[in-house]
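debug: dumping io for the single-chain case to check the tokenizer round-trip. Nothing else runs in this session.
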Amino acid sequence: MGQRPFPASLDVEALLAKGWKPHAFRQFILKIHSRCDLACRHCYVYEMADQNWRNQPRRMSDAIAKKVALRIGEHASTHGLTEVDVILHGGEPLLAGPDFIRDLVRAIRREMDTGSAVNVSIQTNGMRLDDDFLKLFEQLGIRVGISLDGDAAAHDRHRLFRDGRGSHALVSEAIRRLSRSRYHGLFSGLLCTIDVRNDPLKTYDALLSFDPPAVDFLLPHGNWSTPPPFRDAGASSTPYADWLIPIFDRWYRTAETEVRLFTEILRLITGRPSRSESIGLSPALLAVVETDGSIEQSDILKSAYHGASSTPLHVLRDPFDAALRLPSLVARQIGMDALSPVCRECDIVAACGGGLYAHRYDENSGFRNPSVYCPDLYALVSHIHRVFAEDVARMRGNR
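debug: decoded output
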């Protein structure tokens, strides 16, 4: 029998014997509703390898929600955490309704030690973001992120209703309701999935028109066995870097908003840790709870293969600590030791970190591979490093 693919082959007991210690979870993604009111073509939950959403209850039950709150408080107390992040997610989380969201958030905060902070945010398509929800989020201090892929033509390539109608007009209305009112302080930013057929600067301008405090540009999910659009596995072309670099060059001069991908790369170049799972070598500190109470890894792994994000754990039986020794989770906390030989020998490894874990997957070898976006990441990180280094050299020369 051949060697099991990584991370199943990882010897966790050997790591522990050498003194490695797991890192506590600090971020909890709660899948409070498993269905959606859009049918986006690039959605990793519904349109990619893992179809477990079909077996999930539509909404997290009150009993599961109560137990989730207890488990988060338990984990925070065990590890002395004074602050945790809770992200309400789906599907479309607003489908869970305002009463459920109110009760869940209050339950989590009750289970935390006095003085501890629970930072709550919600990622939504905006379809149901009305004044009643905004009033509730204001009361509870819930920050709101909305998905928008650019102008109407760009956004409506993928983010559609089931009958084929585009959602841009309604999403735009929701963002304006959030950003141009007393609720602007709740606005956490816009999430944009890249399609290289859309003009990059036109897309960036369309996002900036809503005055977002931050923008997240996401590479469409794929891997070596199922390459993402316009990214041929093994090809040396760099369509995604070519799309992002013009935006970076403008952003670097103007800083009109925070662009998280660029900010994180600059942090890594200057020796600081990444705060994102998409880049860098910082340990993954994220746990996911599905609507049925199953404890899972990052749900982005659903893009790799059916069951890729699953664990045998459930909040009714298991504390979050039980996940900290699973090889699949440990692999995402050991940094350089989880990388392929190609990545470990790369001159930008400290900044790239092998890219997003899900993008490394190959059906034959598992996750110990470079990112399927390796040429793009190398080109983008190298460009940002060069621009930054030239800027520092100029400043030193002017002293």
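debug: round-trip ok. The mean pLDDT is 95.
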